[in-house]
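User: Last request for today: this protein with serine, please.
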Amino acid sequence: MTQWTAARLRGLFLEFMQEKGHTIIPSASVIPQGNVNVLFTIAGMYPLIPYLTGKAHPSGTRLADAQKCVRTVDIESVGDASHLTFFEMLGNWSLGDYFKKEAINWSWEFLTGDKWLGIDPNRLAFSVFQGDENAPRDEEAANLWREMGVTEDRLFFLPKQYNWWSTGGPGPCGPDTEMFYINTDKEPCGPDCTPACDCGRYLEIWNDVFMQYNLREDGILEPLAAQNVDTGMGLERTACVLMGKQSVYETDAFTDIIKKIESLSGKVYGSDENTTRSMRIIADHLRTACMILGDERGVTPSNTDQGYILRRLIRRAIRHGMKIGLPDVAAVAIAGVVTAQYEQSYPELKARERFIAEQLRLEEERFQRTLKTGMREFEKLSAKMTDEKVIDGANAFRLFDTYGFPIEMTVEMAQEKGLSVDTEGFQLCYERHRELSHSGAAQKFKGGLADASEATAKLHTATHLLHAALREVLGDEVAQKGSNITEERLRFDFSFSRKMTVDEITHVQTRVNEAVQARVPILISEMSVPQAKALGALGLFEGKYGDMVKVYTMGGFSKEICGGPHAGNTGDLGQFIIQKEESSSAGVRRIKAVLK
Ligand code: SER
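Assistant: Here's the final one, the structure of the complex with serine:
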């Protein structure tokens, strides 16, 4: 039998979909366009949202692709057998074309057909939506599986939490049906063992979403005029299942990368737990860094947004490289393997090979300059701590500021020694010292407030109103890039491609002052992230479910996820005056404003 590889799976999927009349479209950027509330493309459907909500796609109504995806919510878990920060998602879409019948028939054919994956049907299980007060039980999908010969013991009706897909915000959504490979090495964990438990018996390989509804801004679910299909199959994970491997790192997606790490370090993958973990982290993080740097919408390491994630990935890889004895500048050599491996699927990587190498070299140099001394400082610090188990904020800040240690890295190093870090204390130091800097890392944590005084809180409220007014006047292209607020003034950075006109500035200022004159009370409510998104709250977050957030609502003017503090009523603010609109960096504008 032919060996399974990730490349073969990708090729077969696209070939199959082409046979079924789909046009193969290239992967979109890993940096999303438009207002999607995510830092990176986290699923294949994100770049297609405009077409799933009605816009005509130039390539027709049946599309398929392999999409580059970056998900960093679980970055700390990378190092185990399964977590990845970069993965490819295979997907096929019907834009008002076919619906459940074809999607399910084809999923079955691709999974079980001899010409395709040829999986034994008895090793497959399926879940469908069990229904709730808003949408009915998906008997149609269940019946289609039954028609394929699926028996009741392998068909599971699960609640919304498992079998409903939405972007998390307003937009297309609907019930889904998931396909699982049954891992017979694991016995059912009990009589109630279903694909919903994480005992490892059911491995998810594919998801067909039936986008038959639109979640409106006001939270109401309405049927979509065109019924769409969105499917997603994780390439590395499915390849791992087909290859019968225990870990994605043992699939061909990583073979060459790990080999390179082995030859450069002289260590062997699998020889001991720490080496294996470090090698996985290096392989994963550098692969992701190459994909971000190799993207047409170039991002470089920095202290804000995508740039900060990129910096964390590179620096964490370098530190683990040091642990296993990788020589300096190893990152560039490893990147060479990544670009060679992906140059056919993603030609943009090859085209940007020099840029990737240059950026990795620069970031590595920047970090190497201080890394060794920083590590010595850290060792000294932790050696001194005998009773004390928490590294204080001032020291964590010194490691960040003087030695360039991302705070998450210090936390990880501390954990390795059974210590923890006072990250709140770090934050306070950061804000005190960085008040005047451009850096946005602090803003990620506390909204860039210098203090919690009444004057600062009022300017903070004004910042929310400004954000909303900018989007109203300039469009959804505007997204917050950072803010810095003191008792005297606010500074707000946002993405926008050109200088604002005087008219636009006046219009924005007037809108904020109208909100002040309207004297609306500011309401706080606590809810889950999907709920907040469903209500149309602004906020930058990755698709992490289950977390509770606070949403600040200012009448019809603004609704935003935030930690506060704010004024009690917009009427308390006084007159809002924009003093300056200027460039902050490429594609980012900055507004300075005061309250009188
Ligand atoms: N959007 C669905 C997912 O992410 C299917 O592509 O699983």
